[in-house]
Amino acid sequence: MNALYDVAAPAKLNLFLHVVGRRADGYHLLQSLFVLIDWCDSLHFERRSDGRLARHDLGAALPPDDLCLRAARLLQSESGTSLGADISIAKSVPWGAGLGGGSSDAASTLLALNRLWALHWPRARLLALGLKLGADVPFFVGGQNALVEGIGERLTPVPVEPQWLAVIKPAASIETRAIFASPLLERGTGPAILESFAANAWQEVAATGFGRNDLQAAAQAECAQVAQAGEMLQGQFGNSRMTGSGSAVFARAGNGIEPVAPMPANLAPGWVGRMCRSLGQHPLVGWAAD
Fold first, then answer.
1. Is 25 a catalytic residue?
2. Which member of 12, 41, 91, 169 is catalytic?
3. Which of 1, 77, 216, 220 fits a disulfide with 227 by CB distance 3.0 to 4.6 angstroms?
4. What is the mean pLDDT of the chain?
5. Considering the domain 164-277 in this protein, what is its CATH number?
């Protein structure tokens, strides 16, 4: 195999995100329900025999040493392969949104190069590498909608009913560090009982309004646009919630053939809105053996 083209890297939403504690080393312990959505970056991989790793941006320029290159270097080093790759990225998922775009790109890079370089590593081995790259990377490597706990390393797959999800990313982005340093951050939410999500995770969240995003108050204090986006979606769909630690906000928009209402019109300059569909599993779930 010499190349893999149009490799998907889907975004995610946090249906809820609770901060349930803090470790002695300062890392916050989280509990969150992650669901994959069909807002994807597209990556292309071409194998090189000289061992060189090079990234090519097919749109806006990414940071010189992004998570994709770090993922590729880590897998190359840990596997001892002499092969390299040209990695081309067409970004669609916005940066700083809390949608996990960079982490998803890194996970798809691990899965694609595992295949392109014929390493045949099992998923568990790739999960361990993913955790070294970032807290969200293991979820995308895992390939299933999941309850995510700890610092991102504990994954419990859960079923999520297909759903329309309206997402708005304001022009502003938020630095995660500022949110976790905020005195407004809620750090003492009690953990949810896993069994309550066994039958249908989405129904539990949608029907009861379970949970919240413990980072939202701190994020809104840092960025008024988060609250503005939430109000727009609340008015259109009757619900809204921030996802992750970025500035994007989403709303449940129905589970039928069509959304119950259209996206809010006339978004401000620099704002991005998209009607998304939840995914049952990651498009690359079969690219690593369990």
1. no
2. 12
3. 220
4. 90
5. 3.30.70.890
